[in-house]
Amino acid sequence: MDHSRYARQMVLPNMGQQGQDKLSAAHIAVVGCGALGTVAADLLVRSGVGGVTLIDRDVVELTNLQRQTLFDEEDARSRRPKAIAAAEKLRKVNSQVQLRALAVDFTWHNARDLVRWHDLVIDATDNHLARLTINDACLDEEIPFIYGGALGYTGMTMNILPGGPCYRCLIDDIPPAGAGDSCDVAGVLGAVTAVVAANQAAEAIKFIVDPDAMRKGLLDIDLLRGTYRALDLPRDLSCPACVEGKRDFLTPERHQEALVICGRNSVMLQNPTRGGLNLQDLANVLLDRGHHCLVDRFRLRLMLEGYELILFADGRTLVNGTEDPAVAKRLYSGIMGG
């Protein structure tokens, strides 16, 4: 393999030929090809990581282009699958890297298989359910992963290694409906996602080349204030996942099931973990965020990006205007904050 393209990288301390060879032999999975995933994957491919697997269920939309750096307007017009579009761009960047694009939903039934055989996983998802599923799968397979998240002007990232605190030590469970924001309703600065993803890529490279140099704890970033804080996160000695060995998010009970309704251009999402919604409280939260809602004791209705969402008190959500379960799930995650 020709390493001349990595000349500026190989002169770095702890890198050299030996470090570059380690990168060339490594395989990393990037779960999510959005704002974090496109930047992280781009940096990893350019650094010469030997194999990169791109996993994403979504398609490119115009609103993605503000921060998702591997896509262009043609990708948005044709609504190309993100994993496929990203892989095609990256193959033009570095033909030496083995790229695998999987346009699939990362969920309980395939999570273990998708992370297995990788040296490391980059979490570039945008919701707690996906992260908790990654956490359980990586714990099961004893694979480290690097968490990242961004919202508004702020971001956060954390290295999650076997034997150390896991994501569930940080976030025990999916927050109640409407308790958190998402970039769909709160916005996000593209520069924040780039900074978080660059940190994820740097830590991934360090893990492959020199694990002792990896950062400990949580890195909190606020670009509005210009602050970077390293926070210690001890292992939760009562953590259900890394201490008690439970894999609650590798079971169907914690995941949405999507049903395409034939002839109606609609998708029904079943989500038993959110059963018993207080629709009025949720409507108040959404109204505060600038959404126009119609609500009664049976259902809540609103429009988002041209789609109609109807949320029922028993936890079901009907998304009208699409037959694509990935679109329906993304819209639902955006409204629920995650």
The radius of gyration over CA amounts to 20 Å
Report the helical percentage.
25-40%
Return the CATH topology of the largest domain: Rossmann fold
* Total count of strands: 14
Determine the structural class based on helices, strands and strand pairing: alpha/beta
Figure out the total of helices. Answer: 12
The main sheet orders its strands as 3-2-1-4-5-6-7-8
What's the N-to-C terminus distance? 43 Å
Please name the CATH architecture of the largest domain: 3-Layer(aba) Sandwich
CATH superfamily of the largest domain: NAD(P)-binding Rossmann-like Domain
The portion of residues forming beta strands comes to 15-25%
The top level CATH class name of the largest domain: Alpha Beta
Low-confidence stretches: none
Description:
The chain is 33% helix and 21% strand. The protein has 338 residues and is an alpha/beta fold. The chain has 2 domains: 4-249, Rossmann fold (3-Layer(aba) Sandwich), CATH 3.40.50; 256-336, TATA-Binding Protein (2-Layer Sandwich). The strands form 2 sheets. The chain has an 8-stranded mixed sheet with strand order 3-2-1-4-5-6-7-8, sandwiched between helices. Strands 9-10-14-13-12-11 form a 6-stranded antiparallel sheet, covered by helices on one side. A hairpin with a 2-residue loop joins strand 12 (299-304) and strand 13 (307-312). Helix 3 runs parallel beside helix 10. The protein is globular. The mean pLDDT is 89.
